[in-house]
Amino acid sequence: MAKKTSDPASLKLETRLAVAGRNPERFDGAVNPPVHRATTLVIPDAGDLYDTPKKTYALEGMAIHEALREALIGVEGGAGATLAPSGLGACTLAMLTVAKAGGEFLVTDSVYGPTRRFCETMLKRIGVKTRYFDPRIGADIADMLAPNTCGVFLESPGSLTFEIQDVPAIAAAARARNVPVLLDNTWSAGVYFKPFDHGVDLSIQALTKYQMGHADAFMGAVISSTAEWEARVRTAYKQLGLGVGPDDAYLVLRGMRTMAVRLESQARSALAIAQWLEAQPQVIRALHPALPSHPDHTLWKRDFKGASACFGFVLKPTTPARLKAMLESYSLFSMGFSWGGFESLVVPCDENVHRTVTPWQAEGPLIRLSIGLEHVDDLTADLAQGLSHLGE
């Protein structure tokens, strides 16, 4: 890359991912930013030791971290990105940035289980209450906003039950009361849903998923809508003593170089498999927002540019023994608690669905799939032989 593009926003996603953070002239011709394994930074000028905008400690991030943050903003927009050691770490960093003693968070009832656990333990211990709301509440969330509401936490779609939330309506109600909106936007990878176009203040990504894409490193990020929000998140980040390793940052950035083509392939396969599952006699319904049968399909079509490769389906009632036989029969789908990687995963979800105000009701077992890069025909054949263990 001979010259730096003056307006990265004018480039297509694939190009932005390929060029983000690259500066061969600065790095002796290397196409990739270097990995600095460092703690101490040597500062020759005594005037730069304190109260300076200059970097004084490697925990603040080196060249590889800066390149990764640039790539994240290039995908999702916003004014800045702060890295965290994991996706959950990004969720908790964002919440602690806006939390205040005596305050109350409004949290979607379909929220990621570990985020719910954080609300009910750590936040409670420091004097912050949590009140859950129906994921489909929309503009009616205005009735729940109170003087002590310190934030609204969304996750769209829910990572187990896949409800799409009316983010613009919720954000408009919150903004009218000067309440910040936080969104776990991991499912879209920042590609298929643009949070800052819909009123979100802080967007959260579990970079372990699609950005990393290779199931070998943990990381998260909080992307801020404005410079003011970025300053607040960075302050909380420093106060908590957080940091991410340079090798992990390198791996995530390397994964992002190919994320657009991986995500497109995986999303196409996932939709084909969801359509196939809908026609199987053992399946009652597929929970994929891009399917017209999904109850929130209209919202998805209005607000999203596409759908990623993680979705669920509900089986007809069956015995525990038959369900176990199905899950253990797969040769390509592995059981594991993640998604977004190159490998296809399956997990039964009923034990992980926790609700407070909107009980989860399904006719049979809930199964979640993450579709990887294997050929869709091979994956469908593997699912078919698994379903055969259930009978018809």
- The largest beta-sheet arranges its strands as 1-7-6-5-4-2-3
SSE class: alpha/beta
Compute the number of structural domains: 2
Gross morphology is globular
Instruction: Look at the structure and give the CATH class of the largest domain.
Output: Alpha Beta
Helix content: 25-40%
As residue ranges, the low-confidence spans are: none
CATH superfamily of the largest domain: Type I PLP-dependent aspartate aminotransferase-like (Major domain)
Briefly note the CATH topology name of the largest domain: Aspartate Aminotransferase, domain 2
How much of the sequence lies in strands comes to: 5-15%
Q: Please give the largest β-sheet.
A: 7 strands, mixed
Summarize the structure in words.
The mean pLDDT is 93. α2 (63-76) runs parallel beside α7 and α3 packs across α6 (227-239). This protein has a 7-stranded mixed sheet, with helices on both faces. A 5-stranded mixed sheet has the order 8-9-12-11-10, covered by helices on one side. It has 2 domains: 10-257, Type I PLP-dependent aspartate aminotransferase-like (Major domain) (Aspartate Aminotransferase, domain 2); 259-390, Aspartate Aminotransferase, domain 1, CATH 3.90.1150. α5 links the parallel β4 (149-155) and β5. The chain is built from 11 helices and 12 strands. The chain is α/β, with parallel strands linked by helices and 392 residues long. Helices cover 33% and strands 15% of the residues. It has helices at residues 13-19, 63-76, 87-98, 113-125, 167-176, 227-239, 246-257, 259-278, 297-303, 320-329, 376-387, and strands at residues 80-84, 104-108, 129-133, 149-155, 181-184, 202-206, 220-224, 283-287, 310-315, 334-335, 345-348, 366-370.
